[in-house]
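tool_log.txt
---
The assistant was asked to compare two proteins side by side. It first ran the structure predictor on the initial sequence, then on the second. Raw inputs and outputs are pasted verbatim so the downstream comparison step can read them without reformatting.
(1)
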Amino acid sequence: MGRKGKPVSQLRVLVVDDEPGIRSMCRQVLESLGCAVEEAGDLEGAENALGGGQFGLVILDVRLPDGSGLDLFRETRQKDPDLPFAIITGYASVEDAIDAVKNGALDYITKPFDVRRLEEVVELASWRMPAGLAVGEGATFEFHGLVGASPGMRSVCSLIERAAQCPSTVLIQGESGTGKELAAKAIHQAGPRSKEPFVPVDCSSIPAGLLESELFGHVKGAFTGAATAAAGLFRSAGRGTVFLDEIGELPRQLQAKFLRALQEREVRPVGATRAAPLEARVIVATNRDLRSAMADGEFRRDLFYRLHVIPIYLPPLRLRRQDIIPLAQHFLDQLNAASGRKAKLSRETASLLEKRDWPGNARELKNAIERALALTGGERIDERAFSEPESKPDPLREGDRLEDYERQAIQAALLKADGNRERAAKILNIGVATLFRKLKKYNLK
């Protein structure tokens, strides 16, 4: 596309909306970008169009005269899981559109939408076009540390492969444990910066008062205790990659400074009068819904759109069950190599693993494999090694206070995380700093 240097003249787009004005506006924008456009005003017309040819993008309204566009999305995804969909929605149907994104839609656009949003969706769809990953249907593959077999994971790796070749900011979204840092490393390793540093930063684990200095650096004497100058992580990465995990936890007062750094490609250390160049590529990740955070005033709208250049969504493991056994085998191979063992999963065990939902995703699966290997003396891991019940907080009883339940939930998370507070915070879906405050509040160790 001209704005980013990525041509999309080969992208064939189907626009499905019952409002002629919206279809006309989309056609004008899409054709100006070099796309071939077809239109449909209802579900019947959309089904006929989809049955008559291949498309690189479907822009689909939620509400159509003869039914819900989301029904068409779900039916089409079963037949062609790699076809990108962008969902058009009004304010009342935003939650449905978010669910569609979580289940594989490329993105959603709220009415009224501007030209820039449409351009972003088209550009993203152009990146999703096949990139030559030679992976057969159902075959297990590994791509720079990412392992899978499902069409959804194959699509993610195709997008990562393309994103690696450009310097644009990438926003990785997904539940805790889906492998967001692995995806960021894959982007770094697959691109021209692979020999440069990869610097990961967990925004939720650094106290807010220290985060600015950690990221941007400081000059000597900038604050009490600053006996020497520090370059900061942005500059320490050089021409490599800075990965900011849990970007949704970035304090509001730092969001403006971060936005300026991205726009101006320069960072100003704390206490400095001059800025220094920012040469590193920036990749961010979150398990939060940043659009909801924007609506709540917790996240800047301008920063969100600056980060949302190439969004990548990592589906939860329960929506890509084809990846469970390849991942389990991958983790077991790693553990066998480290311990010198030759343990194997029984057929019954593999079936059991594939049926579980794994709310902690790949991280929970890896921990389960490690625990099962430790509990198994022989070389065959059977299903009994995975039958240990999980610790859960006691249910609320009449007269219980909210604080009592919160205390129990924190204790259960710490138990499940073997006392690791960072892992416990992820289980609770809160920041580490928030967990520290609650530990102090309830006098927990």
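(2)
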Amino acid sequence: MRGKEKKIAVIGDGAMGVLFGSLLSEYCPVTIFSRNEERTALRNEIGITVNEKAGKRHFHPCFTVNKEEISDSSLVILFVKSYATEKTIEEYLPFIAEDAFVMTLQNGAGHLEEAERFFPSERIIIGVTEENSSLLSVSEINRGSSGKTVFGMHGMTPPCWIARVFNEAGLEAEVSSTIMKDIWRKLLTNSSLSTATALLMTSIDSFGKSRRAFSIIEALLAEAITVAEAEGYSFSYEEVRSVLALKCKSSHNAYTSIYMDLQGGRRTEVDYITGYVVSRAESHGIAVPYQKAALEIIHAKEEISSSGC
């Protein structure tokens, strides 16, 4: 059933924004907001093809560069790069309805604090997703792996229609009462597995084929779990390690966003991922040499890439 009574806006037309916007568009009116007029026109003309393990599916979500069109949206989902969050909100804020909910499913941590500068807490939904997507062309994306999307609010429960529409669209959704721990759980993955893909510049499934490569994930994970515990969130190293090992073996031609950014010569979100872990470790007086080295190496890769070398 198509929920025409609610409209969803997705800010950010990268791989993840396009994936969520495309899937949701079959069950709810969706508009994906972009800065690129040429890309927007082409996508509106030919639509989006999503490659999945079961085959290809075609979607026709609405794309626009007109910020004013966000005014009638009941839910605004942020899928911009983490470092662009504050600037993006400032640009769209005059057009977002005063009763609209704002959801962030971005990589890393620290987004709640940024959103709270602009919106009251009762309108902010924070979450994490295990979905993986990469751009193959301007009109085609690869859904490398699917997984649960978890979101929640501080002291409140998100409107039930949001989880319903997500689930109807094939985006397995769950409302969490412990969302900050869930964010740290995803941060463990990003600061180990995702960071490792950037260090070796390879796909996720490559780590399921090399014991030596997977040991890099293990070293980064052990440090991140120690920091999480200092923050008040306890995790089992063996359980998380097993989940990551399974992800490496079950992913299909999947690349992380941090890998894709380096590959494309773009700035990464490493400061919101590995950098966040390092920052919190320093505040607790915890040594995290592998995380710090990874942070420096990825920043060095960014500099080399931006210089054209």
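---
observation on (2): DSSP finds eleven helices and twelve strands in the chain. The chain has two domains: 8-177, 181-304.
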